[in-house]
Structures are given as C-alpha cells and as structure tokens.
Write a structure and sequence with these properties.
The protein is mainly beta and 137 residues long. It has one domain: Porin (Beta Barrel), CATH 2.40.160. The protein is 15% helix and 54% strand. It has one helix and nine strands. An eight-stranded antiparallel barrel has the order 1-3-4-5-6-7-8-9. Strand 6 and strand 7 form a beta hairpin.
C-alpha cells in the first residue's frame, strides 16, 4: 500500500513539474533562417539538394493546442503542404521532442525563439533540416 501511494505521489509530482516548466508556445512562429539536406533512398534515387536558404524547410509553425508540456500544431511548407505535429517538452522546459506526419525531431525554445530540427521517416526520401523561428502571434 505504501509503495502504491509513493508511486502515485511520484507520478503526480512529475506531472506537475512538467506543467510548471513548459513555456506557453501557443500561436504562430515564422522562419528566420533554415538549413536542409535532402536526397533519395537506396530504392528511390534522386539528386541531392543542400540549402541554407530561409525557405529551405518549414515556413511557419502554428501551435493550436497546449496542455502543460504537451502541444499540437501544424507546420506549413513552401509548397503549401501542411503537416500535423504532436510534441512534448522535456523536464528542462526548453527542449522539445515531436512527431509529424512525415518525420520526427527535436527543438529548443527560449523566450520568443525556437529551433525546430527534423528528419524524415519516409521510405521514398531522406531529409533533415533545422529551422530557426520567431514567435509572431
């Protein structure tokens, strides 16, 4: 019985610690700079594309829902493509991990700036990118 109570208290404390340390990131974040690398796969060859252009990765990241350290939103790409994103903050309240329709990644938030780095999980192309974003709304 004591072990169960301690376990429940630990889970409650951990949940509240996450909720207290995560910043409010609701709103729209727009690209400041980006770097990306893309190419084919062993089965689906394509030319490599390396870029340091501002529109090399996502153009906008809109966070529509947040509950403590958990959040959901949508990325918008240069070609208008949108991908749903689900993510969580780490205990430090700055580092995040996320999953999208086409990839996974990590990031970092400090004040109104965010770094959003992702890698594809597709079998048709390999892609990695890091985007620096600034909160606009």
């Amino acid at each position: 019985m004591i072990k169960k109570c301690l376990l429940i208290l630990t889970v409650m404390f951990a949940s509240s610690a996450y909720a207290q340390t995560a910043p409010n990131i609701l709103g729209t974040w727009e690209v400041v700079s980006a770097v990306s690398s893309a190419g084919g796969t062993e089965d689906k060859q394509s030319r490599s594309v390396l870029s340091n252009k501002k529109d090399a990765a996502i153009l906008k990241f809109t966070i529509s829902t947040q509950d403590g350290a958990a959040f959901q939103g949508e990325t918008t790409w240069k070609d208008g493509l949108k991908n749903l994103v689900s993510g969580v903050f780490h205990r430090d309240g700055k580092t995040l991990t996320f999953s999208s329709d086409v990839g996974v990644g990590t990031g970092y938030v400090a004040n109104d700036e965010m770094e959003f780095c992702s890698a594809s999980v597709l079998t048709t192309k390999n892609r990695a990118s890091c985007t620096q974003l600034k909160k606009v709304k």
